[in-house]
Amino acid sequence: MALRIVMMGTGAFALPTLSALFQSEHDVVGLFTQPDRTGRGHHRHAHPMKEAALAHGTPVFQPHNVNEVHFVEELRSLHADLFVVAAYGQLLSADVLQSAARGAINVHASLLPKYRGAAPIQHAILKGETETGITIFQIEPKLDAGPMLGVESTAIGPKETSGDLERRLAKIAAPLLLDVVAHLEANSLNPIPQDAALATKAPRLRKANGAIDWSRSAEEICQHVRAMQPWPTAFTYLYQPGKKPLRLILIDVEAGPAENDTEPGTICTTDEKRVMVRADGGTVEIRQLRPEGKRAMEAAEFLRGHSIGPNARLSGDVPG
Question: What is the bridge-based pairing of β-strands 4-9 and 27-32?
């Protein structure tokens, strides 16, 4: 028997799940997604979730707060059997959760109870995890704490960025979600409670989180650079005597052994192709970067346009 489903989600991670629901036997009776974003010059950014729903003739709702009485009434009027939530970005009140006959399930990009919160992919890479996955769980009022209904794990590649991993996890999530919905429909689910003692947090990132701390180990700095892509990006400042500090976004870096005993952040080796920076107990080779106001470039191209003299150093501290 087909279920009446309301999808709640925003962005690239949720789109494969919405597409899978459209291709299933279930009836997507509404999409709740975040309001359109407006950029400079009042240009509206593309909203793939909204566009996909409208192409299927599915009603779209974009409340700033889904828990307001008006939108709770809208939800009830859809007579949904189930809410499917993926990267929606809003917490659901008890009134919202009670508006669907079978409640709400969430598609979460971590192996719960690890990394509860808005940025599980980024925090998993930041912490040097070698494995992550998708957990689908029953939503309860407490953040990401409900019983688990389906789990699938995957290895994290040694060079994968948050953006790379998000795209892979989104593809893993869609068939897992359909499998969970099929078991829910057949009343054959086996919910597994989360162990709260093992829970870790993955709060939303801010732009300031991109600042590189060169006193960390080389491996930790490489993890940081990968975790911050595509947003908020990992940045540092090039300080040289007599020159204005230059903001650099680091895109591709590689950890290596210590070459000399200098302070963290010191640029210890440069040649025509390489920039090596001292970290705690090792070095970081900068392979690709983007100077402020410029496009991304290889280190060799950067060095052709920027001379790096003695006493040059990198720091995440914003110039005062």
Answer: parallel
Residues 46 and 91 in one domain: yes
CATH number at residue 275: 3.10.25.10
Do 163 and 20 share a domain, yes or no? yes
What is the share, in percent, of the chain residues with pLDDT greater than 90? 88
Q: Is residue 259 part of a domain?
A: yes
Is residue 81 within 8 Å of residue 105, measured between CB atoms? no
Instruction: Report whether 277 contacts 286 (CB < 8 A).
Output: yes
| DSSP character at residue 304 | H
Task: Answer yes or no: do 178 and 236 share one domain.
Answer: no
Distance of CA 26 to the CA centre of its chain: 28
Q: List the beta strands (DSSP E) in the chain.
A: 4-9, 27-32, 60-61, 82-86, 104-108, 131-138, 148-155, 234-239, 246-257, 267-270, 275-279, 282-291, 297-298, 313-315
Evaluate if residue 37 carries a pLDDT over 80: no
User: Distance between CA atoms of 212 and 231, rounded to whole angstroms?
Assistant: 14
Domain range for residue 286?
207-315
Residue in the structure block whose two tokens are 């769980």: 137
Task: Give pLDDT, residue 270.
Answer: 76
Question: How open is the CA angle 173-112-193, to the nearest 5 degrees?
Answer: 110
Q: In Å, how far are 69, 168, 174, 312 from 3, measured between CA atoms? A: 25, 27, 16, 63
Q: What is the CA radius of gyration of the chain?
A: 23
Let me know whether 233 and 182 are in one domain.
no
- The CATH number of the domain where 89 resides is what? 3.40.50.170
Same domain, 153 and 247: no
C-alpha span between 123 and 114 (Å, rounded) = 10
Q: Give the global pTM.
A: 0.94
Q: What is the pLDDT of residues 274-316, one digit of tens each?
A: 899 999 989 999 999 999 999 999 999 999 999 898 889 999 9
190 with 62, same domain: the answer is yes
Number of domains in the chain: 2
pLDDT in tens, 59-92: 999 999 999 999 999 999 999 999 999 999 999 9
